[in-house]
């Protein structure tokens, strides 16, 4: 059984990390897995980049910029990501088919990597893990409370549009045409929230949908002695440390940094220090109530695991999470999580059992949750319950076997049809 995993990058971004972890876990289970990307940052020989010639590599770098050109007419669009996925002239599908895979497993394929119309040219059965809302919307990746995807989009709030026949409507219609020609494509939802949205979607609601979360290697993400971890990071031993982080943690509005600052501004505790990863220290300080350490981008799992072990709480104030990968990472390391009680995070964090779930967007309740965990006498129990849940439900060996079963069922189904 030969699996070809497709993702825009091998390591940049949460989806890329999750995809690469799945790829490596499949290999550990002795499943023949290869990965094909548009942007390769690592040196793993099992990961290939599809551009070969100088011209292809040049176009590859320009593709993300070219793909978003239709957005230029929408002057009132929000800062969230929107992908038309219209730009052609790519050899990506020819490259995919040249691997002669038994299963093509798509993940995050935007950034100009694959044109919607190219999906129907893939010869092997398709499995598609959705890391955000893009596949079932008219182009937005983060829909927040908008449900226009249930009616075909148009008048898109992400575009700042009031026209029914706008770009989101056009992209939706393109998807509608192509996805109807791929009735046997299997969709993987990372959470129950994503599964419910997919099933209510006119684009993908009739497809087979399975719920499998992102895998995590719990032999790497595991607790280490807190004081030892703090020595590694040169953190103070006698402080309460709060952690927040993501790719572009302070600039991505979906990650909720501004809401977190509101919550922290209500906490008066000189024993607290704040740690941010995924962003460097900003030029202009927007807040200075608590001493803050900015760690920048972390590129390896071992550094992340030691960081989670060094702190007392991981805070996830995101406006939306398809899954909640930093929650599984933190809990696997025995560090409780405080987050808003919505979207994909509900599958991972259990209120007052593995962390604290605050009322959605309620910064006072978020602050209360932080103080509750810091002062909870059963802190060790929270940590142990969190670790146990991740090992039981999201360990990479378990989820790679679930994917293996899914792949084999699709291949068996194809053989029976023949």
UniProtKB/TrEMBL annotation:
Pfam families: Glyco_transf_4, Glycos_transf_1. Gene3D superfamilies: Glycogen Phosphorylase B. CDD domains: GT4_WcaC-like (cd03825). InterPro entries: Glyco_trans_1, Glyco_trans_4-like_N, Glycosyltransferase_grp1. One of its GO terms (molecular function) is glycosyltransferase activity. Keywords: Transferase. This is Glycosyltransferase involved in cell wall bisynthesis. The lineage of its organism: Bacteria, Pseudomonadati, Bacteroidota, Sphingobacteriia, Sphingobacteriales.
